[in-house]
Amino acid sequence: MTCPDCRRRLHERLDGVPASDVAGLDAHLAACPDCHALFAAVGRLEVGLRALTPPRPPADLGGRVVGRVLADRRRRARRRRALFAGLAVAAGLLLTLTLLARKSGTPDVVHGPTVTPPETAPTPSLRDNVAEATSAVASLTRRTAGETAEGSRLLLPDLPLPATDDAGLADALEPSAESLREAGHGVGAGLEPVTNSARRAVALFLRDLPVAAERKPGL
Amino acid sequence: MSADDAALVRRCLRDEPDAVRTLVDRFQAEVYGLCARLLRHRHDAEDVTQEVFLRVFRSLKRWDSSRPLRPWVMGIAVNRCRTWLAQRARRPELVDYLQDTAPGRAADDSAELVREIRDALAVLRPEYQAVFVLFHEQGQPYEEIAAALSRPVGTIKTWLHRARLELLEHLRRRGMVPADDPPAAAAGNPPQRG
Question: Is pLDDT of A212 > 50?
């Protein structure tokens, strides 16, 4: 028997494999001090392993573990339910909005032989709304500019005037009136780019929208 | 065993509290024992045991019912211990080491022997420790340990043999093997495992 054989027997012994060739092993142990010492240590290890009691869990650990597991499950179930409820609400909202949008986008009365399929139906109402918004913004800007210019012009009659005749008055006020007129035009001209920019922005936005379904003649 | 495990798991998945209790009772001693040995800290072992079971129940749906349940649970325990040890290594050293494994009433020097074995175990590589504890203290077969650690049986045997040789060397170095001690020749009965 060799030292590697002896090592193998050592592990077999610790594995609980029944011994074989005991005489050969004894002979080797008697002749090999290293293996003799190793096998002596094995005996001590076996004694120690028999005395080594596994750590015992505290008596209440099982209850704590079960409580924590059940609480965790309840929490996860609640979270799942909340998630599903949120998804259901979102889906319902989406469905409602879709239905509303479709309903408002459908012409009230449809004439003619062909009907546009719902899935390809354009959204003229949105386009109309945007167009209305465009004109509203443009007219508001125009009106603001006009009012500003008009207000400037109205300043003139409210000024305390010297008591002179009409021709003299006109002559006297001409320089002031001229400057105020210029100021009014300036304000109007200053606001015009804003009006134009708004108009261009809306036109660009409208260009990206799906083309509105052509209305039937007479609608 | 596997059919029993599968039935138990099915009941657990139906949220039956009795089944949860049964599963915890079935494995808690082994899980805690392994955690206590690897972590060497009572409170850490309790915390990790709870974490292990939380993870077990959270992933119970993914358990392959064609395989035994115990290695799967013990694999989760080994992984949690490994993670915990890595996290603990970044924290200040703890002093409340495990003291509940002393044999107590032994008339011979087995208390000292046990202490030496514990100390020697503590300095082994974590995977050697796990294999040694699972085999020698919990009596699990090589195949189950291999399944728990997701390693081939040959690797598990190699790790266990190295762990044993390191322990034997530690005992010799610490003078726990008297020079005139007769070798435990193969003539004796094989030791009881587990």
Answer: no
